[in-house]
Design brief:
The chain is of the alpha+beta class. Helices cover 26% and strands 28% of the residues.
Length: 212
């Protein structure tokens, strides 16, 4: 299969606009009228609530706009300095294996972070990608996906240089573990650097989804 379309959105993309765009693209992919898409965006500050979000995990409901969303997971923060990648793939054609897809996203993030000098890993029983800072394990990337008629959407968020204090308004992903970023780890990476690293490792992600 050909590589998906690769698109980088300029500026800050409003969350409702992003969701509407994804919904339209997912329908078009399923209909065969548009190619797959990896869409890289940056959002204004907001909290999004996944399908497993618990009300008590929203600690500051008036701090930023809060959006209910159909992706899996709990509360997540999005904001400037964070690279969000919305991944719209035809998993019917690439192999109907959702666990393998999520594991592929994790491996994709880990490979990209390695290019930027960060050793990252998964922790059994926890969704997302982790690294070590001075205080021990800290989350550097979140994953939340949805699948409609075997087309994926939503995706992942990598903390490049966000204001980490903004995570204090939620229990991120339902976990009390700290969060970190490339900047907090002393890595002078830009969103563009992250994009380039993700692009380099995209073929490996796609190859791992092919039916065996």
């Amino acid at each position: 299969m050909p590589l998906p379309e690769w698109r980088v959105a300029p500026g800050l993309t409003p969350y409702p606009e992003a969701v509407a765009t994804m919904e339209d693209r997912v329908a078009a992919i399923r209909a065969g009228t548009a190619p797959e898409l990896v869409w890289l965006v940056e959002h204004p500050p907001l909290y999004s609530a996944g399908t497993s979000a618990e009300p008590h995990e929203l600690l500051s409901p008036d701090r930023f706009p809060v959006f209910a969303t159909g992706r899996g997971g709990k509360y997540t923060y999005h904001g400037p300095g964070q690279r969000t990648a919305y991944v719209m793939l035809d998993l019917d054609a690439r192999g109907r294996d959702l666990r393998r897809y999520v594991a592929g996203l994790e491996a994709w993030i880990i490979a990209a972070l390695a290019d930027l000098g960060v050793a990252a890993r998964v922790i059994p029983g926890k969704i997302g990608v982790w690294t070590d800072d001075a205080g021990g394990p800290a989350k550097i990337a979140a994953i939340g996906v949805r699948v409609r008629r075997w087309v994926s959407y939503h995706g992942l968020a990598i903390n490049v240089a966000p204001d980490l204090a903004h995570f204090d308004g939620i229990v991120p992903c339902g976990l009390s573990d700290p969060v970190t970023s490339l900047t907090a780890l002393g890595r002078a990476a830009t969103l563009g650097d992250v994009d380039d690293a993700l692009a380099r490792h995209l073929p490996a992600l796609l190859a791992g989804l092919v039916r065996g």
